[in-house]
Amino acid sequence: MIEDERKLLKRYGIRPRKKLGQNFLIDNRAFEKILETSELTKNDLVIEIGAGTGSLTERIAPLAAKVIAIEIDERLSPLLAERLAQFDNIRIVRGDILKIGLKGLLELPGVKPSTFSAVKVVANLPYYIITPIIINLLQQKPAPNLLVILVQKELAERITAHPGTKSYGAFSIACQYYCIAELICKVEKKAFFPQPQVDSALLKLVVMPHPLVKTRDKDFFFSIVRASFSKRRKTIENALLYHLNWRREQLRERLTKVRIDFRRRPETLSATEFARLADILQES
């Protein structure tokens, strides 16, 4: 498999670019796990971000109603056109997902999201822009129903982390605010060409129709979360004193009202506790 990918790239005179996060998946077991986790049907619209050499795209196409594969590297356009020519349900788009956006893809001529039962993002995401891509997708209205994505193992652990663990932080809460996150399996670095420096993991993010955390003001809630974790080694009280222009006694009173011990560290608070805290801090 690896030789096939190397020969294909060589034939088109393409060398993987590190700055574009080009580590192409070459492991059949990983491909199978992605497809199994995606649970694709003939009624699904699939968005693939970073089509690369089309090795995942050609596996998705027979299982889905339509595939929109976006690729930023124009050098790969003729390769993708040749490799995927046999499929009439693939639309190849050259561009940057962060500039085009999910909304832009869903508004392409001939694409009618209402005719599909689900919109799913299935992708081996480029390492260098994974975080903004995930947040951008989760904040879309409407958002995709499901994300099945390959990311760095460390990032996958952060996204799925629970309170009180080393990996838990502001990004964990940001993702879990919108979706139910599950780390499906580890994917070793040897499953890619060229090999990255770290292992990856397959993530399944089921996006919920409504946020999983109830709070009065989403922006204020996230500002409190970010402020708390910016002083991770401090207590929640001391961390927020850096952020709020309040007296210690005043802040401690609000913490007590929502039953949060002022001596706790931010990483021990659940998203629900942060929501209660943010709401009471907004009260006059």
Automatic annotation (TrEMBL):
CDD domains with a match to the protein in the record: AdoMet_MTases (cd02440)
Compartments reported by the entry: Cytoplasm
UniProt-recorded Gene Ontology molecular function terms: 16S rRNA (adenine(1518)-N(6)/adenine(1519)-N(6))-dimethyltransferase activity; RNA binding
EC number of the protein: 2.1.1.182
Alphabetized UniProt keyword annotations: Cytoplasm, Methyltransferase, RNA-binding, rRNA processing, S-adenosyl-L-methionine, Transferase
Entry GO CC: cytosol
EC class: transferase
Domain Ribosomal RNA adenine methylase transferase N-terminal as annotated: residue spans: 30-209
Binding site for S-adenosyl-L-methionine: 23, 25, 50, 71, 96, 124
Catalysed reactions listed for this entry: adenosine(1518)/adenosine(1519) in 16S rRNA + 4 S-adenosyl-L-methionine = N(6)-dimethyladenosine(1518)/N(6)-dimethyladenosine(1519) in 16S rRNA + 4 S-adenosyl-L-homocysteine + 4 H(+)
Entry annotated with the keyword Transferase: yes
SMART domains to which the protein is assigned, alphabetical: rADc
Alphabetical list of InterPro entries matching this protein: KsgA/Erm, rRNA_Ade_diMease-like_C, rRNA_Ade_Mease_Trfase_CS, rRNA_Ade_methylase_Trfase_N, rRNA_adenine_dimethylase, SAM-dependent_MTases_sf
Gene3D superfamilies xrefs: Ribosomal RNA adenine dimethylase-like, domain 2, Vaccinia Virus protein VP39
Protein family (similarity comment): Belongs to the class I-like SAM-binding methyltransferase superfamily. rRNA adenine N(6)-methyltransferase family. RsmA subfamily.
Function: Specifically dimethylates two adjacent adenosines (A1518 and A1519) in the loop of a conserved hairpin near the 3'-end of 16S rRNA in the 30S particle. May play a critical role in biogenesis of 30S subunits.
Protein name: Ribosomal RNA small subunit methyltransferase A
Organism of origin: candidate division NPL-UPA2 bacterium Unc8
Highest classification ranks of the organism: Bacteria
